[in-house]
Recover the amino acids of this structure.
């Protein structure tokens, strides 16, 4: 693990993220992977706000924030300018799931279709955390948020997560991957691969949010790991549109993950909602089937 | 301090914000049982766990928010969260 | 040397000679000829620039912002709905102090949909922090692009600018234009020298957010920079005159205002028609003149007050309507002349491509001299 | 619009100020369109459309009858009309001189396509005397290159001579 610790901190302490912030860790790991020769184009969002109140920036690399939905377009311009000036910095976008899967889709689609040499990192904490935990296109089925609250006639968010990796793979992206802060080295290696692959690459990194999901701050990595162990999050890579690698697991039932988070509390209290839990289990089962992540149990080894 | 045109700033000033004050619990590192795996420093969202000359680790309490992730990931259970004395 | 060409082509030619490194634009009528010409120039290697074929105007200006922050001279062009789509980025680019130059082929805003000319689009961005220049003809349009780059990139200014020329009326009109050579443009406009840029060798954070402790001061600084742009424009305009013989050192241009009783005030191509109308009225013994507002942002209030000293009546021709409040130019001219005793009347005219003739200008003067104003001119009441 | 642009260009080449612009619209190919030209010894500032033309050119004779192509014309005006069958005398205002020319046939013969801009330009030059042959040819040669230039110059000259004979 110590290998990701090389170099100095390019994402500095003193930022204003909540204690136990998954996205803050993702930002640190991202810069471990990119090193100094990078320009970051950031979308408005939790990370942007907790890291850059004037004049206290946490970023020790060139960084630009313009608006919520345009970081891919801003990065397109930066990449074009660097090309024209003969410069070598890598251009990396970073945006949350709202900026990426919802409001920024137009700009991202354009940038990917045009084939700019940029890497887009989506830190996915599965809702609009900056503004107080509203539903996004990345909010999973059944999660209660402030705009998809559980209630008498609602069992939380009624739709599954949008499949952004596949959408961007369909744009012809040469490298698309998912990652999780539960596996820091894997994320770092994927970022290195993405920034060294010519053309537009995409990584969606799962970054649990203790505040938004409702768990203790020390549990952030445990939660990220459980998402993978239940099959609700799959770490995989797509090269030229084909899935080439997916992390295999001995799957646990989804409720091991769900029952630890306040956003799913309505599935267990006041009464257990077996049908809803079964629907979420079906999502995990479908993921497992699509990516072939199940490790076959050997009776003897158990 | 003169404002920098365009709300632009050089790096470094985040360190002015000593987030250690946010802490309720603080991590106590036990170098005796430390296996020097470095997981605590890798996963710290603040980047405030430093390697000592001995190869063990210690938190920079000026910035540690006391989240407890390091305690959770330590394979040797050599980090313990204690209530902050204020 | 005068050459005969389309207005849009004159813009593309002068932009080429201003050497932008990154061009990002989305086609929209009546701006299309400009960006088509530039794309062809890039395709022919006549211009050393990246041309980003963005998927929307919103991305066009966003890409320009990024490229500008990375230290390149940039260019875009748009109009109407496209400019409206850029609204958010416009405020952002000015706040981030990026010296972007963008041509606006002025066009009305829907609904109802109209591709025809008025100045509602750029006027609606008057609070955004962009400098706004309005051209009377295609010669001025071309010249103002060079001046705009010089003013915007001045380290005392560091703001973006719209160079506005009337859609179709200028953009699609063929007329003689004298374009400086590449060497002449290079002598006038030095290579882009960014004040600060995104650079791994000297990292900076751009576009940070400001708490209430700082926000007001940042907005104050932008406002101050706009006022400094007046001086920068005067300098750049005078220098332009010395080099090319066409002087732009005045933010407002008076035409036969000496001894005038009534003054028209207008912006853009309508000034040409108005000058001919003024000549006819003068020939008929009427003391009428015209004030052309060349720079609308920053607003030259003092210059307008000085130029109109001595007239008794002012008729403002407003090719826009701030719905629920009258024409934008008229409102600001009234403020500029507050307390002067001059009667100022506003006329909403030429919206959505409605043609304006000399006799319309004369009719406006008649109305103003009768004290009738603050109205839509030439309403077709029969269809109401 | 091309004809208007070429005529204004040729006039400019002949040493006067000129201006050409279309009646801006959303018409698709084939729909009727209008374009305007002004010449002057002084710089042209006027931007309004032309309401009282001294000259008109009608490229498509089928418009006559549907549209009042002579609107605003006064005695002394000149109309150049592309037609095979000049049978519209009743509509011509008093004092307006009409030159009918079968520009489509000339264009087809010289250029191989029924595009009459350059042919009518030749006719206009001869009928009005506003443009001399030399600047006209110069304008065409800077607009077209190679054999296309030759063909267009020939078409214009043929019309010029034809109308010149009639004038």
């Amino acid at each position: 693990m110590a290998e990701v610790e090389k170099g100095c901190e390019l994402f500095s302490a003193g930022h204003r993220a909540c204690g136990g912030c998954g996205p803050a860790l993702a930002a640190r790991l991202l810069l471990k992977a990119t090193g100094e020769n990078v320009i970051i184009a950031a979308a408005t969002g939790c990370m942007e706000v907790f890291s850059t109140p004037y004049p206290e920036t946490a970023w020790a690399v060139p960084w630009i924030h313009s608006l919520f939905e345009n970081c891919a377009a801003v990065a397109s311009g930066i990449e074009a300018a660097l090309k024209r000036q003969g410069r070598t910095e890598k251009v990396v976008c970073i945006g949350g799931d709202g900026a990426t899967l919802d409001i920024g889709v137009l700009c991202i689609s354009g940038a990917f279709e045009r084939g700019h040499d940029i890497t887009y990192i989506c830190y996915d904490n599965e809702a609009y955390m900056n503004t107080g935990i509203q539903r996004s296109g990345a909010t999973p089925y059944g999660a209660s948020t402030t705009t998809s609250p559980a209630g008498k006639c609602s069992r939380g968010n009624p739709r599954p997560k949008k499949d952004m990796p596949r959408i961007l793979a369909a744009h012809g992206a040469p490298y698309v991957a998912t990652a999780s802060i539960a596996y820091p080295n894997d994320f770092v290696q994927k970022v290195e691969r993405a920034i060294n692959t010519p053309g537009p690459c995409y990584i969606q990194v799962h970054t649990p949010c203790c505040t938004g999901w409702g768990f203790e701050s020390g549990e952030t990595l445990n939660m990220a790991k459980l998402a993978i162990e239940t099959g609700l999050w799959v770490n995989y890579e797509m090269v030229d549109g084909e899935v080439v690698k997916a992390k295999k697991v001995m799957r646990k039932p989804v409720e091991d993950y769900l029952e630890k988070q306040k956003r799913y509390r309505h599935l267990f209290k006041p009464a257990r909602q077996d049908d809803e839990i079964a629907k979420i289990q079906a999502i995990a089962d479908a993921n497992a089937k699509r990516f072939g992540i199940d490790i076959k149990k050997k009776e003897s080894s158990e | 301090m003169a404002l920098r045109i365009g709300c632009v700033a050089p790096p470094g000033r985040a360190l002015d914000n000593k987030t250690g004050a946010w802490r309720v619990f603080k991590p106590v590192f036990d170098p005796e049982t430390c296996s020097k795996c470095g997981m605590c420093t890798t996963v710290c969202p603040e980047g405030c766990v430093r390697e000592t000359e001995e190869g063990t680790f210690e938190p920079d309490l000026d910035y540690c928010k006391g989240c407890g992730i390091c305690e959770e990931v330590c394979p040797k259970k050599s980090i313990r969260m204690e209530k902050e004395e204020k | 040397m005068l050459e005969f060409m389309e207005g849009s082509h004159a813009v593309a030619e002068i932009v080429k000679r201003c050497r932008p490194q990154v061009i990002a634009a989305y086609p929209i009528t009546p701006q299309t000829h400009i960006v088509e010409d530039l794309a062809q120039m890039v395709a022919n290697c006549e211009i050393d620039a990246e041309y980003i074929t963005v998927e929307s105007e919103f991305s066009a200006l966003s890409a320009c912002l990024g490229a500008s922050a990375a230290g390149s001279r940039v260019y875009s062009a748009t109009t109407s709905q496209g400019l409206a789509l850029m609204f958010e980025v416009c405020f952002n680019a000015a706040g981030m102090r990026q010296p972007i130059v963008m041509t606006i082929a002025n066009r009305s805003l829907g609904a109802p949909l109209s591709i025809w000319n008025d100045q509602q689009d750029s006027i609606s961005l008057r609070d955004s922090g962009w400098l706004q220049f309005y051209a009377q003809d295609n010669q001025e349009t071309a010249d103002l692009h060079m001046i705009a780059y010089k003013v915007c990139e001045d380290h005392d200014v560091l703001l973006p600018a719209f160079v506005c020329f009337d859609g179709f009326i200028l953009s699609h009109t063929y007329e003689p234009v004298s374009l400086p050579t590449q060497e002449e443009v290079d002598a006038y406009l030095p290579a882009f020298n960014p004040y600060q840029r995104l650079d791994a060798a000297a990292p900076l954070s751009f576009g940070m957010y400001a708490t209430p402790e700082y926000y007001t001061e940042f907005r104050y600084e932008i406002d101050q920079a706009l006022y400094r742009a007046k001086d920068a424009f005067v300098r750049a305009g005078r220098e332009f005159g010395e080099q090319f013989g066409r002087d732009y050192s005045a933010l407002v241009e008076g035409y036969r205002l000496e001894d005038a009783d009534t003054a028209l005030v207008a912006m853009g191509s309508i000034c040409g028609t108005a000058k001919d109308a003024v000549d006819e009225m003068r020939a008929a013994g009427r003391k009428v003149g015209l004030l052309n507002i060349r720079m609308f942002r920053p607003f030259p209030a003092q210059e307008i007050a000085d130029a109109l000293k001595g007239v008794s009546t002012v008729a403002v021709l407003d090719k826009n309507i701030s719905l629920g409040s009258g024409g934008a130019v008229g409102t600001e001219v009234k403020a500029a002349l507050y307390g002067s005793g001059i009667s100022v009347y506003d006329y909403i005219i030429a919206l959505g491509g409605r043609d304006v003739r000399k006799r319309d200008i004369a009719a406006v003067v008649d109305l103003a001299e009768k004290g009738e104003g603050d109205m839509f001119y030439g309403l077709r009441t029969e269809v109401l | 619009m091309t004809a208007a642009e070429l005529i204004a260009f040729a006039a400019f080449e002949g040493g006067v100020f000129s201006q050409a612009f279309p009646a801006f619209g959303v018409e698709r190919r084939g729909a009727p369109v209008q374009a305007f030209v002004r010449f002057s010894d002084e710089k042209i500032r006027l931007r309004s459309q032309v309401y009282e033309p001294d000259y008109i050119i009608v490229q498509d004779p089928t418009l006559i009858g549907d549209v009042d192509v002579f609107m605003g014309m006064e005695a002394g005006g000149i109309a150049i009309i592309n037609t095979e069958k000049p049978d519209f005398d009743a509509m011509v205002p008093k004092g307006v001189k009409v030159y009918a020319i079968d520009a489509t046939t000339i264009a087809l013969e010289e250029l191989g396509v029924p595009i009459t801009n350059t042919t009518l330009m030749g006719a206009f030059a001869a009928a009005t005397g506003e443009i001399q042959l030399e600047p006209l040819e110069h304008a065409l040669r800077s607009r077209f290159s190679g054999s296309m230039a030759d063909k267009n110059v020939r078409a214009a000259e043929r019309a010029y001579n034809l109308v010149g004979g009639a004038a």
